[in-house]
Amino acid sequence: MRGSSIVHPLLLPAGTSAISVHCVAKADWPALRDGLAPVPRSFALAQGFEARPGQHALLPDAAGALAAVLLGVEPTSPRRRDPFAPGRLATTLPPGDYALAGDIGDAGLAALGWLLTAYRFERYRKPKPAAARLVLPEGVDGEELSNLAEASALARDLVNTSAADLGPAEIEAAIYALGETHGAEVSSTVGDDLLVANFPMIHAVGRASPRAPRLIDLRWGKQGDPKLTLVGKGVAFDTGGLNLKTDAGMLLMKKDMGGAAAAIAAASMIMRAKLKVRLRLVVPAVENAVSGASFRPGDVLQSRKGLTVEIGNTDAEGRLILADALALADEEAPELLVDFATLTGAARVALGPDLPPFYTHDDGLAAEIARLAAAANDPAWRMPLWPPYDGMLDSKIADLNNVSGGAFAGSVTAALFLNRFVEKSRSYAHFDIYGWNPSTRPGRPEGGECQAARLIYALAKQLYGAR
Known about the structure:
The protein has helices spanning 29-35, 38-46, 107-117, 142-160, 168-182, 193-196, 200-206, 247-250, 258-272, 318-330, 345-351, 363-376, 410-419, 453-464, and strands at 11-12, 19-25, 56-60, 66-73, 97-102, 133-135, 185-190, 214-220, 227-232, 234-238, 278-288, 300-302, 308-310, 336-341, 357-359, 381-382, 400-401, 427-432, 436-437, 447-448.
């Protein structure tokens, strides 16, 4: 265990004296209640504590100071218990030092849930008092927890930032800063240079904005190590282009760079853990704006891969910029290629905001993703790259259309579109994430969310290990 070098400001070394947070299921409450001293037992009963899931009670000592906390949790069951459940108290308890005890389930995930719950985005308002601190549970790696929590916070900060303050250039700056931290090589191609460098669809999507489109390319690791490439959709704001979104549809579009944020977070985790990979991070960053330079429905765009794409809808812009970026990434045939994108509303209709679908032809990879998603409490669900639906992308004047033209299988056809631009990579997976928590739950405060990054980090760690 590397817990002696923990760096997260809300983590304390194992064994530190602290107030106990005792997690208890309802069936176990009578025995615990009867074992309490008279004063704390009376206080628990006076507060109506019955160990209902999420219910908590503060217990004083003889002098009236806070001595312990009770927290009701679900019965132990992988189908019912949220591993992050103990973390719900991180922002509700008085400031102080606390230690988890009792029926906490997976200690690492419980502690991670505490740190993820404690996240706050305070760029635009006065900071609140410091959140409660947590003693690192015995046997849990504090450095690993810090890595996961801080990278997730980076992604959340990027998603939560107003589009007025986070455009393509600011996404680029975040990647350059990450590269400087870890000694990575970073380059970028900006504006009309995208045409010279053969990224015509990235240029077409971003050219209407006064904030120039760009492609950012980060490389890290030793040349001989296995190649792992991450691609993230970086649409800083999406008006829908000439197929303009409604006001409700546009309201959360600052989060349309959530795929880039997740890819950046996963890259951060991998580099900080010094995994034995040749990592590449590719982010096309644009703003899909409206002007006289906007690309139009009916336009036919060239792509880096050489395929021509008829534009059926300018609001399906994310797959266009991803296609050029994926084609670039695929050219060097990485062992594993993964993209993250806030791509379709159809994915939300099918699986909701919490459960991103993923697509891959690799059954072995899919099985490992499913297993690690559960183990990391970073959920994802496999959906099919269904070949019969490929024909829904046919165009009468180009190699393919960017939309299917129908109301069915929108997330599947978007994934099939992207799949056309990948052929050399040994394994490829596409994640259609939401990047946002509509409401607050343990480990997942309302606002920007980092989805699938911890999962891909866990996969990379399993496949390649540390240096």
